[in-house]
Design a protein that fits this description.
The structure is a homodimer of 134-residue chains. Chain A has helices at residues 6-20, 29-36, 40-52, 77-85, 109-124, 128-131, and strands at residues 56-59, 65-68. Chain A has 134 residues and is mainly alpha-helical. The first copy, chain A, has a domain at 6-87 and 127-131: Arc Repressor Mutant, subunit A (Orthogonal Bundle), CATH 1.10.10. Chain A has a two-stranded antiparallel ribbon. Bound molecules: iron/sulfur cluster (2 copies). One iron/sulfur cluster binds at residues 91-93, 100, 102-103, 106, 108-109, 112 of chain A. The site of one iron/sulfur cluster (SF4) has 10 residues of chain B, from helix 5. Chain A binds a DNA duplex (30 and 30 nucleotides) through helix 3.
Chain lengths: 134, 134
DNA sequence: TTAAAAGAAGACTTAATTGGTCTTTTAGGG
DNA sequence: CCCTAAAAGACCAATTAAGTCTTCTTTTAA
Protein backbone atom coordinates (compact mmCIF):
# COMPACT_ATOMS: atom_id res chain seq x y z
CA UNK A 1 0.00 0.00 0.00
CA UNK A 2 0.85 3.70 -0.18
CA UNK A 3 2.78 3.35 -3.37
CA UNK A 4 3.98 6.39 -5.25
CA UNK A 5 2.78 6.28 -8.85
CA UNK A 6 5.17 6.51 -11.76
CA UNK A 7 4.09 10.06 -12.22
CA UNK A 8 5.35 10.92 -8.76
CA UNK A 9 8.56 9.01 -9.19
CA UNK A 10 9.24 10.63 -12.56
CA UNK A 11 8.42 14.05 -11.17
CA UNK A 12 11.01 13.69 -8.45
CA UNK A 13 13.67 12.34 -10.78
CA UNK A 14 13.08 15.16 -13.21
CA UNK A 15 13.16 18.04 -10.81
CA UNK A 16 16.08 16.63 -8.83
CA UNK A 17 18.03 16.45 -12.06
CA UNK A 18 17.08 20.02 -12.86
CA UNK A 19 18.28 21.07 -9.41
CA UNK A 20 21.63 19.45 -10.07
CA UNK A 21 22.22 21.63 -13.12
CA UNK A 22 23.64 25.18 -13.11
CA UNK A 23 20.87 27.35 -11.69
CA UNK A 24 21.17 30.12 -14.27
CA UNK A 25 20.95 27.93 -17.33
CA UNK A 26 17.73 26.74 -18.96
CA UNK A 27 17.50 23.04 -19.44
CA UNK A 28 15.78 21.23 -22.29
CA UNK A 29 12.93 18.89 -21.47
CA UNK A 30 14.44 16.41 -23.86
CA UNK A 31 17.71 16.51 -21.97
CA UNK A 32 16.00 15.91 -18.64
CA UNK A 33 13.85 13.11 -19.99
CA UNK A 34 16.86 11.38 -21.42
CA UNK A 35 19.01 11.84 -18.35
CA UNK A 36 16.47 10.44 -15.92
CA UNK A 37 15.05 7.86 -18.32
CA UNK A 38 11.43 8.96 -18.46
CA UNK A 39 9.07 9.14 -21.47
CA UNK A 40 9.33 12.72 -22.63
CA UNK A 41 5.62 13.15 -23.30
CA UNK A 42 4.81 12.10 -19.78
CA UNK A 43 7.45 14.32 -18.26
CA UNK A 44 6.10 17.24 -20.29
CA UNK A 45 2.78 17.10 -18.48
CA UNK A 46 4.47 16.81 -15.15
CA UNK A 47 6.59 19.89 -15.80
CA UNK A 48 3.53 21.77 -16.97
CA UNK A 49 2.03 21.11 -13.56
CA UNK A 50 5.21 22.28 -11.91
CA UNK A 51 5.18 25.39 -14.02
CA UNK A 52 1.62 26.33 -13.09
CA UNK A 53 2.38 26.42 -9.41
CA UNK A 54 5.75 28.09 -9.84
CA UNK A 55 7.95 25.18 -8.88
CA UNK A 56 9.75 25.63 -12.19
CA UNK A 57 9.82 28.48 -14.65
CA UNK A 58 9.51 27.75 -18.36
CA UNK A 59 10.77 29.53 -21.44
CA UNK A 60 9.14 28.78 -24.76
CA UNK A 61 10.50 29.03 -28.23
CA UNK A 62 13.97 28.56 -29.53
CA UNK A 63 16.49 28.32 -26.74
CA UNK A 64 13.68 27.68 -24.31
CA UNK A 65 13.55 25.15 -21.52
CA UNK A 66 13.16 24.99 -17.77
CA UNK A 67 14.83 26.35 -14.67
CA UNK A 68 13.81 26.03 -11.04
CA UNK A 69 11.22 28.52 -9.84
CA UNK A 70 13.10 29.01 -6.57
CA UNK A 71 16.53 28.12 -5.33
CA UNK A 72 16.87 24.43 -4.64
CA UNK A 73 17.12 24.89 -0.88
CA UNK A 74 13.66 26.46 -0.89
CA UNK A 75 11.87 23.55 -2.55
CA UNK A 76 10.96 20.57 -0.40
CA UNK A 77 10.27 17.03 -1.44
CA UNK A 78 6.80 17.37 0.04
CA UNK A 79 5.96 20.17 -2.37
CA UNK A 80 7.17 18.17 -5.33
CA UNK A 81 5.20 15.09 -4.36
CA UNK A 82 2.02 16.96 -3.51
CA UNK A 83 2.26 18.92 -6.75
CA UNK A 84 1.70 15.83 -8.83
CA UNK A 85 0.17 13.27 -6.48
CA UNK A 86 -2.07 15.54 -4.46
CA UNK A 87 -2.00 15.83 -0.71
CA UNK A 88 -0.79 13.06 1.58
CA UNK A 89 -4.00 11.24 2.51
CA UNK A 90 -3.56 7.91 4.28
CA UNK A 91 -7.34 7.60 4.54
CA UNK A 92 -10.39 9.55 3.41
CA UNK A 93 -11.24 10.75 6.84
CA UNK A 94 -8.17 12.98 7.23
CA UNK A 95 -9.21 15.48 4.59
CA UNK A 96 -10.93 17.70 7.11
CA UNK A 97 -14.39 17.62 5.57
CA UNK A 98 -17.01 15.27 7.04
CA UNK A 99 -15.83 12.45 4.84
CA UNK A 100 -16.82 9.75 7.30
CA UNK A 101 -19.73 10.04 9.69
CA UNK A 102 -18.02 7.66 12.09
CA UNK A 103 -15.03 9.90 12.62
CA UNK A 104 -16.17 11.31 15.98
CA UNK A 105 -16.32 7.99 17.74
CA UNK A 106 -13.70 6.26 15.62
CA UNK A 107 -10.62 5.01 17.42
CA UNK A 108 -8.68 4.50 14.19
CA UNK A 109 -9.13 8.01 12.89
CA UNK A 110 -6.38 9.54 15.07
CA UNK A 111 -3.94 6.95 13.79
CA UNK A 112 -4.31 8.16 10.23
CA UNK A 113 -3.88 11.74 11.34
CA UNK A 114 -0.62 10.79 12.95
CA UNK A 115 0.57 8.87 9.89
CA UNK A 116 -0.20 11.88 7.75
CA UNK A 117 1.67 14.19 10.09
CA UNK A 118 4.75 12.03 10.29
CA UNK A 119 5.07 11.53 6.58
CA UNK A 120 4.49 15.19 5.81
CA UNK A 121 7.06 16.23 8.37
CA UNK A 122 9.64 13.88 7.01
CA UNK A 123 9.18 14.90 3.38
CA UNK A 124 8.98 18.56 4.32
CA UNK A 125 12.38 18.36 5.94
CA UNK A 126 14.14 17.42 2.74
CA UNK A 127 15.06 19.95 0.08
CA UNK A 128 16.08 19.60 -3.54
CA UNK A 129 19.46 20.98 -2.56
CA UNK A 130 20.18 17.96 -0.40
CA UNK A 131 18.78 15.57 -2.97
CA UNK A 132 20.83 17.04 -5.77
CA UNK A 133 23.95 16.62 -3.67
CA UNK A 134 25.04 20.23 -3.60
CA UNK B 1 -1.38 10.02 -2.42
CA UNK B 2 -0.94 6.93 -0.22
CA UNK B 3 -4.63 6.39 0.18
CA UNK B 4 -5.96 3.28 1.83
CA UNK B 5 -8.42 1.51 -0.47
CA UNK B 6 -11.93 0.72 0.63
CA UNK B 7 -10.88 -2.84 1.08
CA UNK B 8 -8.36 -1.79 3.70
CA UNK B 9 -10.76 0.52 5.43
CA UNK B 10 -13.46 -2.16 5.51
CA UNK B 11 -10.99 -4.73 6.76
CA UNK B 12 -10.08 -2.58 9.72
CA UNK B 13 -13.66 -1.73 10.54
CA UNK B 14 -14.65 -5.36 10.41
CA UNK B 15 -11.91 -6.82 12.54
CA UNK B 16 -12.05 -3.99 15.07
CA UNK B 17 -15.74 -4.73 15.49
CA UNK B 18 -14.99 -8.41 15.93
CA UNK B 19 -12.41 -7.53 18.56
CA UNK B 20 -15.02 -5.55 20.44
CA UNK B 21 -17.27 -8.59 20.80
CA UNK B 22 -16.99 -11.30 23.47
CA UNK B 23 -13.89 -13.27 22.58
CA UNK B 24 -15.42 -16.72 23.11
CA UNK B 25 -18.46 -16.19 20.95
CA UNK B 26 -18.57 -16.69 17.21
CA UNK B 27 -19.85 -13.72 15.27
CA UNK B 28 -21.86 -13.87 12.07
CA UNK B 29 -20.44 -12.20 9.00
CA UNK B 30 -23.85 -10.71 8.36
CA UNK B 31 -23.81 -9.12 11.78
CA UNK B 32 -20.37 -7.61 11.27
CA UNK B 33 -21.20 -6.32 7.83
CA UNK B 34 -24.33 -4.66 9.08
CA UNK B 35 -22.68 -3.18 12.15
CA UNK B 36 -19.80 -1.57 10.29
CA UNK B 37 -21.79 -0.74 7.16
CA UNK B 38 -19.85 -2.70 4.57
CA UNK B 39 -21.17 -4.79 1.64
CA UNK B 40 -21.33 -8.32 2.99
CA UNK B 41 -19.96 -9.98 -0.14
CA UNK B 42 -16.92 -7.74 -0.08
CA UNK B 43 -16.34 -8.29 3.61
CA UNK B 44 -16.60 -12.03 3.05
CA UNK B 45 -13.55 -11.98 0.82
CA UNK B 46 -11.64 -9.86 3.26
CA UNK B 47 -12.36 -12.25 6.10
CA UNK B 48 -11.35 -15.18 3.93
CA UNK B 49 -7.97 -13.53 3.59
CA UNK B 50 -7.83 -12.99 7.32
CA UNK B 51 -8.72 -16.61 7.87
CA UNK B 52 -5.98 -17.92 5.60
CA UNK B 53 -3.26 -16.22 7.59
CA UNK B 54 -4.82 -17.00 10.94
CA UNK B 55 -5.87 -13.50 11.88
CA UNK B 56 -9.37 -14.85 12.39
CA UNK B 57 -10.72 -18.36 12.77
CA UNK B 58 -13.85 -19.38 10.91
CA UNK B 59 -16.55 -21.95 11.61
CA UNK B 60 -18.77 -23.15 8.80
CA UNK B 61 -22.26 -24.51 8.89
CA UNK B 62 -25.09 -23.84 11.26
CA UNK B 63 -23.96 -21.78 14.20
CA UNK B 64 -20.84 -20.83 12.32
CA UNK B 65 -19.13 -17.49 12.11
CA UNK B 66 -15.85 -15.83 13.03
CA UNK B 67 -13.71 -15.25 16.08
CA UNK B 68 -10.27 -13.67 16.37
CA UNK B 69 -7.37 -15.98 15.69
CA UNK B 70 -5.43 -14.52 18.61
CA UNK B 71 -6.29 -12.30 21.54
CA UNK B 72 -6.86 -8.73 20.49
CA UNK B 73 -3.73 -7.45 22.20
CA UNK B 74 -1.65 -9.71 19.98
CA UNK B 75 -2.93 -8.36 16.66
CA UNK B 76 -1.51 -5.09 15.41
CA UNK B 77 -2.99 -2.64 12.98
CA UNK B 78 0.01 -3.21 10.75
CA UNK B 79 -0.83 -6.89 10.37
CA UNK B 80 -4.41 -6.12 9.49
CA UNK B 81 -3.48 -3.53 6.90
CA UNK B 82 -0.75 -5.62 5.33
CA UNK B 83 -3.02 -8.65 5.22
CA UNK B 84 -5.30 -7.01 2.72
CA UNK B 85 -3.29 -4.20 1.17
CA UNK B 86 0.06 -5.86 0.99
CA UNK B 87 3.26 -4.49 2.47
CA UNK B 88 3.83 -0.80 3.12
CA UNK B 89 5.66 0.33 0.00
CA UNK B 90 6.09 4.07 -0.43
CA UNK B 91 8.05 3.44 -3.62
CA UNK B 92 9.06 0.44 -5.72
CA UNK B 93 12.66 0.62 -4.72
CA UNK B 94 12.08 -0.31 -1.09
CA UNK B 95 11.03 -3.88 -1.82
CA UNK B 96 14.54 -5.19 -1.41
CA UNK B 97 14.90 -6.68 -4.86
CA UNK B 98 16.80 -4.76 -7.51
CA UNK B 99 13.69 -2.92 -8.54
CA UNK B 100 15.52 0.18 -9.65
CA UNK B 101 19.01 0.17 -11.11
CA UNK B 102 19.55 3.70 -9.88
CA UNK B 103 19.13 2.79 -6.24
CA UNK B 104 22.83 2.68 -5.41
CA UNK B 105 23.52 6.27 -6.31
CA UNK B 106 20.04 7.57 -5.62
CA UNK B 107 19.71 10.23 -2.95
CA UNK B 108 15.95 9.82 -2.70
CA UNK B 109 15.99 6.12 -2.02
CA UNK B 110 16.88 6.45 1.68
CA UNK B 111 13.96 8.81 2.16
CA UNK B 112 11.48 6.16 1.14
CA UNK B 113 13.13 3.65 3.40
CA UNK B 114 12.65 6.03 6.27
CA UNK B 115 9.02 6.70 5.38
CA UNK B 116 8.41 2.98 5.26
CA UNK B 117 10.04 2.47 8.64
CA UNK B 118 8.16 5.24 10.35
CA UNK B 119 4.77 4.18 9.10
CA UNK B 120 5.38 0.53 9.89
CA UNK B 121 6.54 1.38 13.39
CA UNK B 122 3.54 3.51 14.05
CA UNK B 123 1.01 0.96 12.84
CA UNK B 124 2.84 -1.86 14.56
CA UNK B 125 2.50 -0.09 17.88
CA UNK B 126 -1.27 -0.20 17.83
CA UNK B 127 -3.26 -3.28 18.73
CA UNK B 128 -6.84 -4.27 18.16
CA UNK B 129 -7.30 -4.19 21.91
CA UNK B 130 -6.67 -0.47 22.01
CA UNK B 131 -8.76 0.14 18.91
CA UNK B 132 -11.71 -1.81 20.26
CA UNK B 133 -11.56 0.25 23.43
CA UNK B 134 -11.09 -2.60 25.90
C1' DT C 1 9.88 34.01 -41.39
C1' DT C 2 11.05 29.86 -39.72
C1' DA C 3 12.50 26.28 -36.87
C1' DA C 4 12.73 25.01 -32.01
C1' DA C 5 10.62 24.52 -27.94
C1' DA C 6 6.85 24.46 -24.40
C1' DG C 7 1.50 24.34 -23.75
C1' DA C 8 -2.78 22.09 -24.20
C1' DA C 9 -6.14 18.68 -25.36
C1' DG C 10 -7.40 14.19 -25.81
C1' DA C 11 -7.30 9.28 -27.58
C1' DC C 12 -5.99 5.02 -26.31
C1' DT C 13 -4.49 0.85 -23.61
C1' DT C 14 -3.89 -1.52 -19.60
C1' DA C 15 -4.49 -2.60 -14.84
C1' DA C 16 -6.71 -2.15 -10.29
C1' DT C 17 -10.68 -1.42 -7.52
C1' DT C 18 -15.24 -2.47 -5.99
C1' DG C 19 -18.36 -4.84 -5.97
C1' DG C 20 -22.06 -8.87 -7.51
C1' DT C 21 -23.81 -13.86 -8.47
C1' DC C 22 -23.87 -18.49 -8.28
C1' DT C 23 -22.22 -22.88 -6.81
C1' DT C 24 -19.81 -25.83 -3.42
C1' DT C 25 -18.48 -27.39 1.01
C1' DT C 26 -19.28 -27.97 5.92
C1' DA C 27 -21.79 -28.66 10.10
C1' DG C 28 -26.01 -29.09 13.23
C1' DG C 29 -30.56 -30.49 14.29
C1' DG C 30 -34.63 -32.91 13.82
C1' DC D 1 -30.63 -39.18 6.51
C1' DC D 2 -32.22 -34.88 4.94
C1' DC D 3 -32.76 -29.83 5.60
C1' DT D 4 -30.95 -25.54 6.61
C1' DA D 5 -27.50 -22.14 7.98
C1' DA D 6 -23.22 -20.52 7.16
C1' DA D 7 -18.55 -19.80 5.13
C1' DA D 8 -15.51 -20.87 0.82
C1' DG D 9 -14.64 -20.38 -3.77
C1' DA D 10 -15.13 -19.49 -8.64
C1' DC D 11 -16.53 -16.48 -11.88
C1' DC D 12 -18.01 -11.96 -13.78
C1' DA D 13 -18.93 -6.83 -14.66
C1' DA D 14 -18.75 -1.88 -13.95
C1' DT D 15 -16.08 1.81 -12.78
C1' DT D 16 -12.01 4.26 -12.09
C1' DA D 17 -7.24 5.19 -12.26
C1' DA D 18 -2.51 4.86 -14.51
C1' DG D 19 0.35 5.26 -18.12
C1' DT D 20 1.56 6.39 -22.84
C1' DC D 21 1.31 8.42 -27.29
C1' DT D 22 -0.52 11.89 -30.89
C1' DT D 23 -1.74 16.07 -32.65
C1' DC D 24 -2.22 20.72 -32.69
C1' DT D 25 -1.28 25.52 -30.88
C1' DT D 26 1.56 29.22 -29.17
C1' DT D 27 5.76 31.54 -28.34
C1' DT D 28 10.24 33.44 -29.53
C1' DA D 29 15.20 33.80 -30.77
C1' DA D 30 17.90 33.92 -34.71
S1 LIG E 1 -10.76 5.31 10.18
FE1 LIG E 1 -12.67 5.74 11.28
S2 LIG E 1 -13.14 7.86 10.73
FE2 LIG E 1 -11.62 7.14 9.27
S3 LIG E 1 -12.80 6.37 7.52
FE3 LIG E 1 -12.42 4.60 8.85
S4 LIG E 1 -14.22 4.55 10.19
FE4 LIG E 1 -14.22 6.56 9.25
S1 LIG F 1 13.81 6.87 -5.48
FE1 LIG F 1 15.77 6.45 -6.52
S2 LIG F 1 16.10 4.25 -6.20
FE2 LIG F 1 13.94 4.67 -5.73
S3 LIG F 1 12.86 4.29 -7.67
FE3 LIG F 1 13.33 6.49 -7.63
S4 LIG F 1 15.31 6.62 -8.70
FE4 LIG F 1 15.04 4.46 -8.18
Amino acid sequence: MMELTRKGEYAIRGIVYLASRPADQVCLLSEIAKAVDVPQTFLAKIFQQFSKIGLVRSYRGTGGGFILGRTSDKITLLEVVEAVEGPIIPNRCVTGAGECDRSNACTVHPVWLKVQDQVRDLLNGITLKELSGQ
